[in-house]
Design brief:
The chain is mainly beta and about 170 residues long. The chain has a single domain, classed as Immunoglobulin-like, CATH 2.60.40. It is about 15% helix and about 45% strand. Strands 1, 4, 6, 7, 9 and 10 form a 6-stranded mixed beta sheet that branches. Strands 3-2-5-8 form a 4-stranded antiparallel beta sheet, with no helix packed on it. The chain is globular and about 40 Å long.
């Protein structure tokens, strides 16, 4: 199983919408001052804005021709924070691990709770799920506030433009 971002397999007691191939995963995230642990038995997890994640993901059923991704929902958009595949998996691997830097996009987000979702699928089946992640840090993150305001204004502008065409 490949890994994406904050965690590789859909983490945390996450609300699995599918899990026919026995996905599991965990991550230990460090930001230089604090360590965060996320595992497949949580519904929510706190994560730092920046740092490094040591991740591992596994599947009970070997998959072939597989792919997957992890996405973070922010306002009206989903941001891909990690993806893998397609891969034929000729070596019949059932687990993977590695290190990933937390995407710089998180540095721009205001502190708060966001939905992280992901999936892993191959010829033999699929698993998918979601977890709530709480991005730590000050709500007074000026770049984050400006970014969020721009996102909201852009969304409003697109909605008005869509109505104007009708």
């Amino acid at each position: 199983m490949g890994a994406g971002a904050i965690v590789s397999a859909v983490p945390a007691g996450a609300e699995f919408t599918e899990n026919k191939i026995g996905c599991s995963g965990s991550a230990t995230i460090t930001d230089g001052a604090k360590t965060y642990r996320v595992s497949a038995d949580q519904k929510e997890a706190k994560v730092p804005r920046k740092g490094t994640a040591e991740w591992q993901g596994a599947i009970a059923t070997t998959t072939h021709n597989h792919k997957g991704e992890v996405r973070l929902s922010v306002a009206f958009w989903d941001i891909t924070v990690g993806s893998w595949g397609p891969s034929p998996n000729a070596a019949n691997e059932k687990s993977r691990s590695g290190t990933k830097k937390i995407p710089s996009a998180l540095e721009q987000l205001p502190a708060g709770k966001y939905k992280l979702s992901g999936f892993h699928q191959g010829d033999e089946g699929r698993c998918a799920g979601k977890i709530t992640v709480e991005v730590e840090g000050s709500i007074l993150n000026i770049p984050g506030i400006v970014s969020l305001a721009g996102t909201v204004l852009t969304g409003a502008g697109l909605a008005v433009a869509g109505k104007a065409k009708n």
